[in-house]
From TrEMBL:
It is found in: Membrane. The chain crosses the membrane at residues 12-35, 163-182. InterPro entries: HAMP_dom, HATPase_C_sf, HATPase_dom, His_kinase_dom, HisK_dim/P_dom, HisK_dim/P_sf, Sig_transdc_His_kin-like_C, TCS_sensor_his_kinase. Keywords: Coiled coil, Kinase, Membrane, Phosphoprotein, Transferase, Transmembrane, Transmembrane helix, Two-component regulatory system. Residues 254-290 form a coiled coil. It catalyses: ATP + protein L-histidine = ADP + protein N-phospho-L-histidine. Its main location: membrane. This is histidine kinase. PANTHER family: HISTIDINE KINASE (PTHR45436:SF8), SENSOR HISTIDINE KINASE YKOH (PTHR45436). GO terms for cellular component: plasma membrane. GO terms for molecular function: phosphorelay sensor kinase activity. Its EC number is 2.7.13.3.
């Protein structure tokens, strides 16, 4: 799998393109060398044959046919290895002189050149060899063939062709290996940037992309990205500090205002005044719940993982939360079902996990109509612990499922219900601390009330599993009370 991913990288594809260009250049160069070398040797052979023909023609002009026969016999006697091929015949192919017996059959060009094989069919007694000759007619109806044994030349061409093929193969193999090594080196640098970037996107904003100190392109890119991250973190911290300060500073006067309104509510006798004071107290409670939720989310996102990580039985924790909310479900005549597998253990902060689970169960009950159904599941799949809350409520449209994790985002269907749009942000922050993954889906797809299935996948505890490091403790006093009903569903 890793090799396939390596082959898909742009650096390997660029190296492959370079390999193709380089191999093509090498092939053209070797082809040119072969063409020039083979052409030169063939031309040299043809020139040798032409020289022999010229000598025979001069002998024929000086001594006639008898002189031509004599010189052919003399040359055959001087060449026992038969490097030169001669055959002089009459018009009806009767041999007069030469070192082959029969007229050869082969492809003959318009200029009189013929390529053939020396074998028994031409009266050749030696091993089979390749030959090239030229044919022309002599006055008096005689036929003359003069040629050369080109078997060594042909073998040399084959050696050159084999060398070229091997050279191309070795060139391609070396180019491929070099491209792979170059791509691997580049991919490693890019993978370091990708891994660090993914960890930064998952909330580890203190991380930075490492450099090698070579001041190459990758180091310059890493330095620029690190400077950009420093600037982003600086701006985020500034915004977060301002929002936290506003929430913290306003919470105290709002608390005083709420207490004063409650005292007024208890002291007035007029029913209308008591009703107005009660509404004011409720509005103040809603504002305080919003500010408390903002502060809790800010603390979770800023401090990250908690150091108070202990083994927690997820089934027991969920069972306690269900026991707390069963009465609320009974008041709405809802069917409250539980399927909790034992021995599902995770490593985490029990208080934060209980808050996350309670928020989800409370929210499911709130957004499910009377006589609806609520289903809570705990099970183990491989190395993961699964917690699910399903309901038959109004659900969340598919195009809004990814947006409900944003702060203050509320689904259109739930805007008329109480809430501040911070529920899923808080649940997401707690899940992220515990390296969990949240997914949303319809519990009853296609129905009028599709409901919502919230699935949280958490790493199951294992003695060999690496514990979370670089963590800070979040005191229980800073976690605050559980979110009020309606804080979750993009509410």
């Amino acid at each position: 799998m890793k090799l396939l991913s390596q082959l898909r990288t742009s650096s390997f594809q660029l190296a492959l393109l370079y390999m193709v260009v380089f191999a093509t250049s090498v092939f053209l160069l070797l082809a040119f060398i072969y063409w020039r070398t083979a052409g030169f040797m063939t031309a040299q052979t043809d020139e040798t044959i032409e020289a022999e023909i010229a000598g025979l023609a001069e002998q024929y002009r000086g001594s006639g046919i008898n002189g031509l026969i004599s010189i052919i016999r003399e040359r055959v006697a001087r060449d026992p290895n038969a490097k030169s091929i001669y055959l002089l015949t009459t018009d009806d192919f009767v041999k007069l002189a030469g070192n082959i017996e029969n007229w050869p059959k082969g492809s003959r060009s318009d200029s009189g050149w013929i390529n053939f094989t020396l074998n028994p069919s031409v009266g050749w007694n030696g091993p089979e060899r390749l030959a090239r000759a030229r044919i022309f007619e002599v006055q008096g109806g005689l036929r003359l063939l003069v040629g050369r044994d080109v078997d060594e030349l042909t073998n040399l061409k084959r050696v050159i062709e084999t060398a070229i093929n091997w050279g191309m193969g070795i060139t391609l193999a070396l180019a491929l290996l070099g491209g792979f090594l170059m791509s691997r080196s580049t991919t490693r640098r890019i993978e370091v940037i990708n891994i660090t970037s993914r960890r930064i996107m998952n909330g580890h904003l203190s991380l930075r992309i490492p450099t090698r100190g070579t001041d190459d392109d990758f180091d310059q890119l890493a330095e620029n990205l690190n400077q950009m991250l420093d600037r982003i973190v600086y701006l985020m911290e500034g915004i977060r500090h301002v929002s936290d300060s506003i929430a913290h500073d306003l919470r105290t006067p709002l608390t005083r205002l709420r207490n004063q309104l409650e005292n007024t509510l208890m002291s007035v006798d007029n029913d209308e005044a008591r009703e107005q004071a009660g509404k004011a107290v409720a509005e103040a409670d809603q504002l305080l719940a919003t500010f408390n939720a903002l502060l809790r989310i800010a603390r979770l996102e800023t401090r990250g993982n908690t150091a108070d990580m202990k083994q927690v039985s997820l089934a027991d924790l969920v069972s306690d939360a269900c026991e707390l909310y069963e009465a609320l479900a009974e008041d709405k005549e809802q069917q409250f079902e539980q399927s909790l597998e034992d021995h599902v253990v995770i490593e985490g902060d029990r208080d934060l996990l209980f808050q996350m689970v309670s928020n989800l169960i409370d929210n499911a009950i709130k957004y499910t109509p009377e006589q609806g159904e609520i289903r809570v599941n705990v099970r183990k799949e491989g190395n993961d612990a699964i917690f699910e809350v399903g309901d038959s409520g109004i659900g969340i449209p598919d195009d809004e499922k990814d947006q409900v994790f944003q702060r203050f985002y509320r689904v259109g269907k739930s805007r008329s219900l109480p809430g501040n749009g911070l529920g899923l942000s808080l649940v997401s922050a707690v899940a992220e601390i515990h390296q969990g993954v949240i997914s949303l889906s319809d519990h009853h797809p296609g129905e009028e009330y599709p409901g919502l299935m919230v699935t949280i996948r958490l790493p199951a505890y294992s003695p060999n599993r690496k514990r979370l490091k670089d963590t800070q403790s979040i005191p229980a006093s800073e976690v605050g009370e559980q979110s009020s009903p309606g804080e979750l569903r993009g509410a």
